[in-house]
Task: inverse folding
Protein backbone atom coordinates (compact mmCIF):
# COMPACT_ATOMS: atom_id res chain seq x y z
CA UNK A 1 0.00 0.00 0.00
CA UNK A 2 1.35 3.44 -0.94
CA UNK A 3 2.48 5.22 2.20
CA UNK A 4 -0.02 8.11 1.97
CA UNK A 5 -2.87 5.60 1.59
CA UNK A 6 -2.05 4.30 5.08
CA UNK A 7 -3.18 7.71 6.43
CA UNK A 8 -6.61 7.39 4.83
CA UNK A 9 -9.69 7.08 7.07
CA UNK A 10 -11.92 6.21 4.11
CA UNK A 11 -14.88 4.05 5.17
CA UNK A 12 -14.23 4.52 8.88
CA UNK A 13 -16.76 5.77 11.47
CA UNK A 14 -15.23 8.19 13.97
CA UNK A 15 -16.89 9.26 17.24
CA UNK A 16 -15.35 12.41 18.73
CA UNK A 17 -16.87 13.32 22.09
CA UNK A 18 -17.60 16.97 22.91
CA UNK A 19 -16.83 18.05 19.35
CA UNK A 20 -19.27 20.90 18.70
CA UNK A 21 -16.28 23.26 18.78
CA UNK A 22 -12.71 23.53 20.03
CA UNK A 23 -10.15 20.76 19.74
CA UNK A 24 -12.77 18.07 19.11
CA UNK A 25 -14.22 19.99 16.20
CA UNK A 26 -10.76 20.50 14.66
CA UNK A 27 -9.92 16.80 14.97
CA UNK A 28 -13.29 15.65 13.60
CA UNK A 29 -12.98 18.05 10.65
CA UNK A 30 -9.58 16.59 9.78
CA UNK A 31 -10.97 13.06 10.03
CA UNK A 32 -13.72 14.02 7.57
CA UNK A 33 -11.07 15.35 5.16
CA UNK A 34 -9.29 11.98 5.52
CA UNK A 35 -12.51 10.18 4.54
CA UNK A 36 -14.16 9.27 7.83
CA UNK A 37 -17.85 9.56 8.68
CA UNK A 38 -18.09 11.96 11.63
CA UNK A 39 -20.20 11.35 14.73
CA UNK A 40 -20.06 13.71 17.71
CA UNK A 41 -21.99 14.47 20.89
CA UNK A 42 -22.49 17.35 23.24
CA UNK A 43 -24.53 17.89 26.38
CA UNK A 44 -26.92 20.45 24.93
CA UNK A 45 -29.07 20.17 21.76
CA UNK A 46 -28.37 23.82 20.94
CA UNK A 47 -24.62 23.04 20.86
CA UNK A 48 -25.16 19.90 18.78
CA UNK A 49 -27.19 22.00 16.33
CA UNK A 50 -24.48 24.68 16.27
CA UNK A 51 -21.89 21.99 15.67
CA UNK A 52 -23.89 20.40 12.84
CA UNK A 53 -24.16 23.79 11.15
CA UNK A 54 -20.43 24.41 11.57
CA UNK A 55 -19.57 21.02 10.07
CA UNK A 56 -22.00 21.66 7.21
CA UNK A 57 -20.23 24.95 6.48
CA UNK A 58 -17.13 22.83 5.86
CA UNK A 59 -19.12 20.49 3.63
CA UNK A 60 -19.21 17.77 6.31
CA UNK A 61 -22.47 15.85 6.88
CA UNK A 62 -21.81 14.99 10.53
CA UNK A 63 -24.08 12.99 12.85
CA UNK A 64 -24.69 14.82 16.14
CA UNK A 65 -26.24 13.44 19.32
CA UNK A 66 -27.04 14.85 22.75
CA UNK A 67 -25.28 12.78 25.39
CA UNK A 68 -23.56 13.45 28.71
CA UNK A 69 -20.43 11.27 28.57
CA UNK A 70 -20.50 10.77 32.36
CA UNK A 71 -23.86 8.95 32.15
CA UNK A 72 -23.08 5.28 31.47
CA UNK A 73 -26.65 4.34 30.48
CA UNK A 74 -26.83 7.30 28.11
CA UNK A 75 -23.44 6.41 26.59
CA UNK A 76 -24.42 2.77 26.06
CA UNK A 77 -27.67 3.90 24.43
CA UNK A 78 -25.73 6.38 22.25
CA UNK A 79 -23.28 3.72 21.01
CA UNK A 80 -26.17 1.36 20.20
CA UNK A 81 -27.95 4.17 18.33
CA UNK A 82 -24.80 5.06 16.38
CA UNK A 83 -24.21 1.42 15.44
CA UNK A 84 -27.82 1.22 14.20
CA UNK A 85 -27.96 4.57 12.39
CA UNK A 86 -24.37 5.09 11.20
CA UNK A 87 -22.27 1.97 11.72
CA UNK A 88 -19.81 0.36 14.13
CA UNK A 89 -17.37 2.88 15.61
CA UNK A 90 -13.85 2.33 14.24
CA UNK A 91 -12.24 5.39 15.86
CA UNK A 92 -13.06 6.91 19.25
CA UNK A 93 -11.58 10.20 20.41
CA UNK A 94 -12.24 10.86 24.11
CA UNK A 95 -12.07 14.63 23.80
CA UNK A 96 -14.91 15.96 26.02
CA UNK A 97 -13.43 17.60 29.08
CA UNK A 98 -13.76 20.31 31.68
CA UNK A 99 -11.38 22.14 33.97
CA UNK A 100 -11.93 23.97 37.25
CA UNK A 101 -9.14 26.35 38.25
CA UNK A 102 -9.49 26.46 42.06
CA UNK A 103 -6.75 26.28 44.74
CA UNK A 104 -6.91 22.73 46.10
CA UNK A 105 -7.64 23.72 49.68
CA UNK A 106 -10.58 25.81 48.43
CA UNK A 107 -11.96 23.13 46.09
CA UNK A 108 -14.88 21.05 47.34
CA UNK A 109 -14.79 17.28 47.02
CA UNK A 110 -17.84 17.58 44.76
CA UNK A 111 -15.98 19.94 42.41
CA UNK A 112 -12.96 17.59 42.39
CA UNK A 113 -15.21 14.63 41.63
CA UNK A 114 -16.96 16.52 38.81
CA UNK A 115 -13.67 17.06 36.97
CA UNK A 116 -12.58 13.44 37.52
CA UNK A 117 -16.02 12.32 36.29
CA UNK A 118 -15.79 14.08 32.94
CA UNK A 119 -12.06 13.90 32.30
CA UNK A 120 -11.30 10.35 33.52
CA UNK A 121 -14.42 8.33 34.32
CA UNK A 122 -16.10 9.29 31.04
CA UNK A 123 -13.20 8.11 28.81
CA UNK A 124 -13.43 4.79 30.72
CA UNK A 125 -17.21 4.62 30.18
CA UNK A 126 -17.10 5.48 26.46
CA UNK A 127 -14.09 3.24 25.73
CA UNK A 128 -15.80 0.33 27.55
CA UNK A 129 -18.90 0.89 25.40
CA UNK A 130 -17.09 0.79 22.04
CA UNK A 131 -14.42 -1.90 22.62
CA UNK A 132 -16.70 -5.00 22.26
CA UNK A 133 -17.70 -4.03 18.71
CA UNK A 134 -14.10 -3.14 17.86
CA UNK A 135 -13.07 -6.63 19.00
CA UNK A 136 -15.80 -8.18 16.85
CA UNK A 137 -14.75 -6.05 13.86
CA UNK A 138 -11.08 -6.99 14.34
CA UNK A 139 -9.68 -3.48 14.74
CA UNK A 140 -10.13 -0.21 16.59
CA UNK A 141 -8.46 3.09 17.42
CA UNK A 142 -8.95 4.91 20.71
CA UNK A 143 -7.34 8.31 21.18
CA UNK A 144 -7.49 10.00 24.58
CA UNK A 145 -6.94 13.75 24.75
CA UNK A 146 -4.45 14.12 27.57
CA UNK A 147 -2.59 17.28 28.53
CA UNK A 148 0.59 18.94 29.75
CA UNK A 149 -1.02 18.13 33.08
CA UNK A 150 -0.58 14.44 32.32
CA UNK A 151 3.09 15.16 33.13
CA UNK A 152 3.21 18.44 35.06
CA UNK A 153 1.29 20.15 37.85
CA UNK A 154 0.56 23.79 38.42
CA UNK A 155 -1.39 25.89 40.89
CA UNK A 156 -5.22 25.54 40.91
CA UNK A 157 -5.56 22.50 38.62
CA UNK A 158 -5.25 19.60 41.10
CA UNK A 159 -8.40 17.78 39.89
CA UNK A 160 -7.58 18.30 36.21
CA UNK A 161 -3.98 17.11 36.62
CA UNK A 162 -5.12 14.06 38.60
CA UNK A 163 -7.64 13.25 35.86
CA UNK A 164 -5.24 13.77 32.97
CA UNK A 165 -2.51 11.82 34.75
CA UNK A 166 -4.98 9.01 35.22
CA UNK A 167 -6.05 9.28 31.59
CA UNK A 168 -2.41 8.71 30.55
CA UNK A 169 -2.38 5.45 32.54
CA UNK A 170 -5.85 4.41 31.34
CA UNK A 171 -4.46 4.82 27.81
CA UNK A 172 -1.56 2.50 28.60
CA UNK A 173 -3.89 0.00 30.22
CA UNK A 174 -6.34 -0.18 27.33
CA UNK A 175 -3.30 -0.75 25.11
CA UNK A 176 -2.12 -3.55 27.41
CA UNK A 177 -5.50 -5.26 27.74
CA UNK A 178 -6.84 -4.93 24.17
CA UNK A 179 -3.78 -4.70 21.94
CA UNK A 180 -4.23 -8.43 21.28
CA UNK A 181 -7.46 -7.59 19.39
CA UNK A 182 -5.71 -5.14 17.06
CA UNK A 183 -6.97 -2.18 19.06
CA UNK A 184 -4.51 0.67 19.40
CA UNK A 185 -5.08 3.13 22.26
CA UNK A 186 -2.90 6.22 22.31
CA UNK A 187 -3.07 9.72 23.71
CA UNK A 188 -2.52 13.18 22.34
CA UNK A 189 -1.09 15.64 24.86
CA UNK A 190 -1.77 19.13 23.50
CA UNK A 191 0.25 22.07 24.77
CA UNK A 192 -1.55 25.36 25.29
CA UNK A 193 -4.19 25.75 22.58
CA UNK A 194 -6.34 28.80 21.83
CA UNK A 195 -9.86 27.49 22.59
CA UNK A 196 -12.78 28.59 24.80
CA UNK A 197 -11.31 26.46 27.60
CA UNK A 198 -8.17 28.59 27.79
CA UNK A 199 -9.78 31.93 26.93
CA UNK A 200 -9.68 33.10 30.59
CA UNK A 201 -5.88 32.64 30.54
CA UNK A 202 -5.50 34.94 27.53
CA UNK A 203 -7.79 37.81 28.51
CA UNK A 204 -6.36 41.27 27.82
CA UNK A 205 -5.87 43.09 31.13
CA UNK A 206 -7.69 46.35 32.04
CA UNK A 207 -4.49 48.29 31.24
CA UNK A 208 -4.41 46.68 27.79
CA UNK A 209 -1.50 44.36 28.63
CA UNK A 210 -1.39 40.64 27.96
CA UNK A 211 -2.68 38.28 30.70
CA UNK A 212 0.30 37.29 32.91
CA UNK A 213 -0.43 33.62 32.16
CA UNK A 214 -0.36 34.37 28.44
CA UNK A 215 3.13 35.85 28.84
CA UNK A 216 4.15 32.90 31.05
CA UNK A 217 3.08 30.27 28.52
CA UNK A 218 4.75 32.07 25.61
CA UNK A 219 7.99 32.08 27.63
CA UNK A 220 7.57 28.34 28.25
CA UNK A 221 6.98 27.57 24.56
CA UNK A 222 10.09 27.57 22.29
CA UNK A 223 8.04 29.07 19.43
CA UNK A 224 6.95 31.85 21.84
CA UNK A 225 3.26 31.46 20.98
CA UNK A 226 0.03 29.62 21.83
CA UNK A 227 -0.86 26.72 19.53
CA UNK A 228 -3.91 26.38 17.30
CA UNK A 229 -6.34 23.43 17.42
CA UNK A 230 -5.61 22.84 13.73
CA UNK A 231 -2.02 21.94 14.69
CA UNK A 232 -3.36 18.81 16.34
CA UNK A 233 -4.99 17.57 13.13
CA UNK A 234 -2.01 15.82 11.55
CA UNK A 235 -1.04 13.90 14.71
CA UNK A 236 -4.71 12.99 15.28
CA UNK A 237 -5.11 11.61 11.74
CA UNK A 238 -1.86 9.65 12.15
CA UNK A 239 -3.05 8.00 15.38
CA UNK A 240 -6.47 7.19 13.85
CA UNK A 241 -5.01 5.61 10.69
CA UNK A 242 -3.28 2.40 9.65
CA UNK A 243 -0.03 4.40 9.58
CA UNK A 244 0.09 4.00 13.39
CA UNK A 245 -0.94 0.34 13.73
CA UNK A 246 2.34 -0.45 15.51
CA UNK A 247 2.02 2.56 17.85
CA UNK A 248 0.21 1.63 21.06
CA UNK A 249 0.09 3.00 24.60
CA UNK A 250 1.91 6.15 23.52
CA UNK A 251 1.14 9.73 24.53
CA UNK A 252 2.06 11.96 21.60
CA UNK A 253 2.76 15.42 23.02
CA UNK A 254 1.89 18.14 20.55
CA UNK A 255 3.10 21.00 22.70
CA UNK A 256 5.51 23.04 20.57
CA UNK A 257 8.33 21.79 22.81
CA UNK A 258 7.01 22.96 26.21
CA UNK A 259 7.94 19.70 27.94
CA UNK A 260 11.49 19.92 26.56
CA UNK A 261 12.15 23.55 27.49
CA UNK A 262 13.18 25.15 30.79
CA UNK A 263 11.67 28.43 29.61
CA UNK A 264 12.89 31.70 28.14
CA UNK A 265 14.93 33.87 30.49
CA UNK A 266 13.06 37.07 31.53
P1 LIG B 1 -13.62 23.23 25.34
O1 LIG B 1 -13.45 24.31 24.35
O2 LIG B 1 -14.04 23.56 26.74
O3 LIG B 1 -14.59 22.09 24.75
C1 LIG B 1 -14.87 20.98 25.57
C2 LIG B 1 -16.02 20.24 24.93
O4 LIG B 1 -16.38 19.13 25.77
C3 LIG B 1 -17.26 21.11 24.79
O5 LIG B 1 -17.91 20.84 23.58
C4 LIG B 1 -18.10 20.65 25.95
O6 LIG B 1 -19.47 20.83 25.76
C5 LIG B 1 -17.78 19.17 25.97
N1 LIG B 1 -18.17 18.55 27.24
C6 LIG B 1 -17.84 18.94 28.48
N2 LIG B 1 -18.41 18.13 29.38
C7 LIG B 1 -19.13 17.20 28.69
C8 LIG B 1 -19.95 16.08 29.05
N3 LIG B 1 -20.15 15.75 30.33
N4 LIG B 1 -20.53 15.36 28.07
C9 LIG B 1 -20.35 15.70 26.76
N5 LIG B 1 -19.58 16.75 26.35
C10 LIG B 1 -18.99 17.48 27.31
O7 LIG B 1 -12.24 22.45 25.49
P2 LIG B 1 -11.04 22.26 24.47
O8 LIG B 1 -9.99 23.27 24.75
O9 LIG B 1 -11.55 22.09 23.08
O10 LIG B 1 -10.48 20.88 25.03
C11 LIG B 1 -10.93 19.64 24.51
C12 LIG B 1 -10.11 18.58 25.23
O11 LIG B 1 -8.72 18.89 25.11
C13 LIG B 1 -10.39 18.52 26.73
O12 LIG B 1 -10.30 17.17 27.16
C14 LIG B 1 -9.23 19.33 27.33
O13 LIG B 1 -8.95 18.91 28.66
C15 LIG B 1 -8.13 18.95 26.41
N6 LIG B 1 -6.99 19.87 26.33
C16 LIG B 1 -7.19 21.19 26.04
C17 LIG B 1 -6.05 22.01 25.90
C18 LIG B 1 -6.16 23.47 25.57
O14 LIG B 1 -5.15 24.17 25.72
N7 LIG B 1 -7.30 23.97 25.14
C19 LIG B 1 -4.78 21.48 26.07
C20 LIG B 1 -4.66 20.13 26.42
C21 LIG B 1 -5.78 19.34 26.53
P3 LIG B 1 -20.23 22.02 26.57
O15 LIG B 1 -19.84 23.29 25.90
O16 LIG B 1 -21.67 21.68 26.44
O17 LIG B 1 -19.74 21.96 28.00
C1 LIG C 1 -4.45 25.41 32.47
C2 LIG C 1 -4.84 25.07 31.06
C3 LIG C 1 -4.21 23.74 30.68
C4 LIG C 1 -4.62 23.36 29.29
C5 LIG C 1 -4.01 22.08 28.87
C6 LIG C 1 -2.53 22.13 28.83
O1 LIG C 1 -5.29 25.96 33.21
O2 LIG C 1 -3.28 25.16 32.80
O3 LIG C 1 -6.25 25.01 30.94
O4 LIG C 1 -4.59 22.75 31.57
O5 LIG C 1 -6.00 23.22 29.20
O6 LIG C 1 -4.49 21.00 29.60
O7 LIG C 1 -2.07 20.95 28.20
Result:
Amino acid sequence: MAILDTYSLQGKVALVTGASYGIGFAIASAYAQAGATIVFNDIKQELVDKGLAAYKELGIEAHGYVCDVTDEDAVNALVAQIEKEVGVIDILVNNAGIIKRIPMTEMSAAEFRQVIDVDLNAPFIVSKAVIPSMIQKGHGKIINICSMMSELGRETVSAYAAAKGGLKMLTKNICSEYGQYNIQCNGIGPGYIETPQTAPLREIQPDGSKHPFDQFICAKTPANRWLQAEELQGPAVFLASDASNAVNGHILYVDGGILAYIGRQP
Summary: Strands lie at 13-17, 37-42, 63-66, 91-94, 140-145, 183-190, 251-254. The pocket of D-gluconic acid (ligand 2) is lined by residues 99, 101, 147-149, 154, 157, 160, 190-192, 197-198, 201 (CB under 6 Å). The chain has one domain: 10-192+227-256. The two ends are 50 Å apart (CA to CA).
